[in-house]
Design goal:
flat; six-stranded antiparallel β-sheet
């Protein structure tokens, strides 16, 4: 029978693992029915099940190819998978996962299986993504032949006498993997070929190797029960071929399948037809071949000749996999020309389509200057093969390569050449518009984006539309008054018609130019990395996308991340002289902590830099309507003509965070550290008990060997509260007390009934302390049941309870007796608070802060932040506290 109280997601996950362990593979409906028969899932069992599966709490419950769910440690319990060790693996204590250990690689997603049964901890690492970890251990890239490895403790294999060519076996047990030596691997069962091919025939080809092996294990409980051949040797014997993570029957064309899969991906990502997608893939493969060629011969003597000869015959390289779909040829094959060269010509011709060209650039993944150099050489080599309509596209790709190599002026010239070849080539027109914008020529830039067909909603279009027109006439000078420039002429004759935008307005333009540089080129990875940290606690749809667009994220990448310095170095020569000088000033200004001293709503604020003491009048029209006097914020305030302005947003800072933030800023933090600190305010609140410990609802039942002695010790240590009768049993109860804020609080409750002890506490520290006392009294005490639940987990369980976890009716707050009780309680709390250590006062008590001139202002700010009691007897009264502290 199900229990009356619905379980939390972790408990449902544990129950699902138990059910699958006992019953074996089940369909989703069967598993939900089995869970509902043993526990309460609330009003919507299917929803509770989906939430459990989506929670990440069940990383080892997987669907099989036939749709049934399985708990892998139960399915593979006792099975062993083997691998032949290489000399490099033995030397560096690593084991390649692919393909031999792929069926158990997913186990390391569960922290229970990141160790061996004897307690030895090991790691699964990616040979590229975790390169730093491998280098730290002195493990070269050549030690691994695949993408993923198990890294054992240093010296483990030699200590266990493993040698080159030995078969190492990883046996699955409930307590972790057991490593063993396989001396005589068994041959596969005679019917294994037929069963594996049957599994593949029932699904889409190809199939994931690990899922095929799991399905076979579900059919045969003895499969891999003894040391079998490594999958490397086994797969060919049963007529299977492997490509990466996938397997299929021998003869399957993985190349054609891969092309078809990538085409489907491109069709979903871009507005391409199938020929366009195939052209993108063909050009991308040619680029990869050229890239590999340059890598292979760059440092070889005579390699330049080899590369030149290969590039001269680039059309003879294979641009597509054999038997894969091919784009339709739009021009006849030249006499004596190979079909490969004809295909290259056809694919290059499709680059005349802007959508195809942009998709090609995205597919090439030009992530660093070295890749950009290859792109430039590649595009130049293809130009002789391109028909006239496509040459502008290849010139544009050359310009992109030059920009990403930092060859700014050369890139501009190349874009101009592209536009001469095709005056309507949009990507080059947009690139030239950025150059015009950087030079401060808004009118020219606006004309270029209009020619390009750019959407008017794009930020570059809007900026150029604003600054491409002259500013409105100055209102502080009459038309017939002397011009502000000092020429001696009247304003209407001098600058009225040809006035430039003042620097206080162009500062925002300068900031936008740098932002466009970061988002258009090689800083996108940095932005994404910072955005992930920023949005870690954002429980909103598309939180990462919102974080990418957060001004604070971009500002951190610009300044702490070095993006703005790179912008000035690469494109500073394009900027108007006064903007370049301003940009260099900005590079000298650090982010800091500011105290708001006064606010003029809609105009600006006056702030004090807490680190330097400087006072600054800031023009800030928007934030000045929201920010308040005495607020603290972290930001970057920079000069802008005759004003000071803030770019990158204001990050609010609480009183108790100031000293920690100042220490962090003084340490010149890296971008991730800074964003992590300033994003803590988004984290869900951590509930605490009155001693400041994280709230955790803990309970345990223990069997004690001498309840009489236990009760006697509890009488000595704790306060006995009641004795009751539960049937024939006498129940005695004790509490552990502590005084906080002038009030006694219950730390823990202990009850003894017969030879059973129950312990309850609301924090792990309190709970573990009492359990330690219990074990000291009775070392033989046995834990029968133990639960540790966060308040959120309890709330979640109550929300699924019948009635939705409704609370009993609250007492009447207007009852005079209740008001009198609350008033007395709060008065006692206020008196105790005056002598409590307060984090916002850097650990001082309010009485100490009132007497300390260096802390007095902080105390005033803190009391100002308290809401008025307004006659509410259940709230602290700031006026009463001021009077008590002599501040009224």
């Amino acid at each position: 029978m199900p229990s009356n109280i619905p379980l939390t997601l972790p408990e449902i996950a544990a129950e699902a693992e138990r059910v699958l362990t006992e019953a074996g593979p089940l369909t989703e409906d069967e598993l939900i029915d089995a869970l509902a028969a043993s526990v309460e899932l609330g009003d919507d069992p299917e929803l509770a099940f989906e939430e459990m599966m989506d929670s990440g709490l069940t990383p080892l419950i997987f669907p099989l190819a036939d749709g049934r769910c399985v708990f892998l440690p139960a399915l593979l319990d006792g099975r062993v998978f083997t691998h032949a060790l290489t000399a490099a693996e033995v030397e560096h204590d690593v084991v390649d996962i692919e393909p031999d250990l792929m069926p158990i690689a997913v186990f390391t997603d569960d922290e229970r299986f990141c160790r061996l049964a004897d307690g030895t901890v090991f790691e699964e690492l990616d040979s590229i993504l975790d390169m730093d970890r491998l280098r730290a251990r002195g493990i070269p890239a050549a030690a691994s032949s695949g993408d993923a490895i198990f890294m054992l403790p240093a010296g483990y294999l030699s200590e266990h006498e493993f040698k080159t060519d030995d078969l190492i076996g990883f046996r699955v047990t409930r307590g972790g993997f057991v490593i063993e030596r396989a001396t005589s691997p068994t041959e596969p069962p005679a019917d294994l070929r037929e069963r594996l091919h049957s599994i593949l025939a029932d699904g889409d080809l190809p199939a994931m190797l690990d899922q095929v092996i799991w399905a076979a294990c579900a059919q045969d409980p003895d499969l891999f029960g003894t040391s079998a051949l490594p999958l490397t040797d086994l797969l060919p014997r049963v007529g299977l071929s492997r490509h990466g993570d996938y397997v299929a029957p021998d003869g399957f064309d993985f190349g054609a399948w891969g092309v078809s899969s990538r085409v489907e991906g491109l069709l979903g990502l871009h507005d391409l037809d199938e020929d366009g997608a195939l052209a993108v893939l063909a050009v991308a493969k040619l680029y990869e071949q050229v890239h590999d060629l340059l890598d292979a011969f760059a440092d070889v003597e005579g390699g330049e000749d080899v590369i030149a000869a290969a590039l001269d015959r680039i059309g003879d390289l294979a641009p597509m996999e054999p038997n894969s779909p091919q784009p339709e040829l739009e021009q006849p094959e030249a006499v004596g020309e190979s079909s490969g060269r004809t295909l290259v010509r056809s694919c290059v011709a499709l680059l005349a389509d802007e959508v195809v060209a942009r998709a090609t650039l995205m597919e090439l993944c030009v992530d660093d200057p070295q890749d950009a150099a290859v792109l430039g050489l590649f595009a130049e080599t293809l130009e002789p093969l391109a028909p006239e309509p496509a040459k502008a596209s290849l010139r544009w790709l050359c310009g992109v390569a030059q920009e990403r190599m930092g060859l700014t002026l050369e890139a501009e010239q190349t874009y101009q050449e592209s536009v001469k070849l095709n005056p309507k080539w949009g990507p080059s027109l947009v690139a030239l518009a950025r150059f015009a914008s950087d030079r401060g020529d808004g009118a020219a830039g606006l004309a270029l984006v209009r020619r390009s067909g750019m959407d008017r909603e794009e930020s570059l279009y809007q900026v150029l539309e604003h600054f491409g027109s002259p500013p409105p006439p100055r209102q502080d000078i009459g038309r017939n008054e002397p011009c502000w420039c000092g020429s001696g002429r009247k304003y209407k004759q001098c600058h009225l018609r040809r006035c430039d935008w003042p620097m206080e307005e162009r500062a925002a333009w300068l900031y936008q130019k740098a932002g466009a540089y970061l988002t258009d080129f090689l800083w996108r990875v940095d932005i994404l990395e910072i955005a992930r940290v920023r949005s870690r606690f954002w429980d909103v749809p598309e939180s990462l996308l919102q974080a990418v667009q957060d001004p604070f994220v971009l500002d951190v990448v610009m300044f702490e991340g070095g993006g703005f310095e790179a912008f000035v170095e690469e494109r500073g020569m394009l900027l108007p002289e006064d903007e370049r000088l301003l940009a260099e000033q900005w590079l000298l200004i650090d982010r800091s902590l500011f105290d708001v001293e006064s606010v003029t709503p809609g105009e600006g604020i006056r702030v004090r830099d807490v680190r330097t003491g400087d006072r600054i009048d800031v023009r800030e029209r928007t934030a000045s309507r929201q920010i308040r006097r005495s607020d603290f914020f972290c930001g970057r305030i920079v000069p802008a003509g005759d004003t000071w302005q803030i770019f990158g947003g204001l990050e609010p800072i609480r009183l108790h965070e100031r000293e920690e933030l100042i220490e962090l800023l003084d340490s010149e933090p890296d971008p991730l550290e800074l964003v992590e600190f300033l994003s803590r305010r988004f984290a869900p609140p951590v509930l605490q008990n009155t001693e400041g410990e994280p709230l955790l609802l803990c309970e345990a039942r223990l069997r004690v060997s001498d309840p009489v002695r236990m009760a006697a010790e509890f009488d000595r240590l704790y306060e006995a509260t009641e004795t009751a009768r539960n049937g024939d049993e006498i129940v005695r109860t004790w509490i552990e007390n502590v005084v906080t804020h002038g009030m006694p609080r219950v730390r823990a409750t202990l009850s003894v009934s017969g030879n059973e002890l129950r312990v309850d506490a609301n924090s792990a520290a309190r709970f573990d302390r009492v359990l330690s006392v219990v074990r000291g009294i009775d070392p033989d005490a046995t834990v029968l049941e133990e639960h540790r639940n966060s308040p959120g987990a309890l709330q979640e369980a109550m929300s699924r309870a019948p009635g939705g976890g409704t609370r009993p009716e609250s007492p009447d707050a207007n009852d005079p007796e209740i008001q009198a009780f609350l008033a007395e309680f709060m008065r006692n709390h206020e008196i105790a608070w005056l002598d409590e250590s307060i984090p916002a006062l850097s650990g001082s008590t309010p009485r100490e802060a009132a007497a300390d001139p260096t802390r007095r202002d902080d105390l005033i700010r803190l009391l100002d932040s308290f809401p008025s009691a307004g006659g509410n007897p259940g709230a602290m009264d700031p006026d009463r506290l001021r009077a008590e502290l002599g501040l009224s």
